[in-house]
Amino acid sequence: MPNDNFETIAIRLQTERSQYKEHSVPLYLTSSYKFDDAEEMRALFANEKEGNVYSRYANPNTTELIEKMAALEGAQTGWVTATGMAALFTTFAAFLAAGDHVLSSRSVFGSTHQLLNNIFPKWNISYSYADLDKKEQWENGIQENTKMIFVETPSNPGIDIIDLEWIGALAKKHGILLVVDNCFATPYLQQPLKYGADLSIHSATKFIDGQGRTLGGIILGSDELIRQIEGFARHSGPAMSPFNAWILSKSLETLAVRMDRHCENALKVANFLEAREEIKQVRYPFLPSHPQYDIAKKQMKQGGGIVTLVINGGGAAAGRFMDRLKMFSISANLGDTRSIATHPATSTHSKLTEEQRLEVGIEQGTVRLSIGLEHIDDIIADISQALQVD
Ligand SMILES: Cc1ncc(COP(=O)(O)O)c(C=O)c1O
């Protein structure tokens, strides 16, 4: 690469092109590859030679996406999967065995809760939770069999934040693998590996795609750790399709400009909401009222595109607010060009009990806003009219 500026890597890093000299990345819709002869087949399967074999393992589109994402996030390499949850499942399954324990942030995406609470215990893998802002819970939560520390920062939907440098040092001191779900920040805003994380995971479905089109998951880390992921993923099959990798590779070309605008719009929305008396609480990393504002400023380039609010009046007020929105979509996705409102208690986190939800700060009045790329005046006008009480 001519230089290491984020935008230039995202646009210019590319794998080898074919004899047609495609300018943009072509799409390789092929499930398998031919070998020149029996000896080449043997050498490729024996890992004595590099090359494409079968698209469950790798494909030029997934390879280009991995190389770009690794360069953008300061990782040696990576692996891609069909969805963000497949990336999380693959990572847990590749590193954890019966008898191991995971110490996880309490505030995590709903399906991640389900993996830890209901799925991995079936294989005798246990978990416990710690609050992102309570250092003593992390220090005291480490057990003899703790194999992995897992954090989501900023968290979904609470926008809680942990000091990555601090948790990186703690994990290192105890020789425990630190895995960070970096979905809300993207590599443009936060690069966890630089603070001591071993693996950084993305749901590429969100801001990386950025246009609400496709699902995808990405895992980034060292050659050694990703080889372990590969060992599990090649044979268990959570592969990303070449088509989705092609979309996501193209999406990365515009990630920086999109994120700049998402963040600019979201900060304006957060400031607007904070001044409104209908709102009990606003959570946004770059609002000075955020309890971990200083940490957010230290480790994030900007605050991201998600603003979470708690409206006075509980579930009824949240429902009324959402139903009155004219432009915002009501949807469970986030990170789209379109602004989206989600009610976590009845959607993404509906499988938790009310008590578990309250523990992670999700009230019936909590609404998660994914701030899109429409004109900021229209975004604020829509929120403002939806807050009016007749
Ligand atoms: C923080 C976080 N991690 C993981 C996921 C799961 O990603 P996917 O829907 O691509 O499986 C999501 C989805 O919303 C998320 O918000």
UniProtKB/TrEMBL annotation:
Catalyzed reactions per annotation: O-succinyl-L-homoserine + hydrogen sulfide = L-homocysteine + succinate
Protein name: O-succinylhomoserine sulfhydrylase
Modified residues (N6-(pyridoxal phosphate)lysine): 206
Organism annotation: Pedobacter antarcticus 4BY
Function: Catalyzes the formation of L-homocysteine from O-succinyl-L-homoserine (OSHS) and hydrogen sulfide.
Alphabetical list of PROSITE patterns matching this protein: CYS_MET_METAB_PP
Alphabetized PANTHER family for the sequence: CYSTATHIONINE GAMMA-LYASE, TRANS-SULFURATION ENZYME FAMILY MEMBER
UniProt-listed Pfam families: Cys_Met_Meta_PP (PF01053)
Co-factor(s): pyridoxal 5'-phosphate
GO annotation terms (biological process): 'de novo' L-methionine biosynthetic process; homocysteine biosynthetic process; transsulfuration
Protein keywords: Amino-acid biosynthesis, Methionine biosynthesis, Pyridoxal phosphate, Transferase
Keyword RNA-binding: no
Lineage: Bacteria, Pseudomonadati, Bacteroidota, Sphingobacteriia, Sphingobacteriales
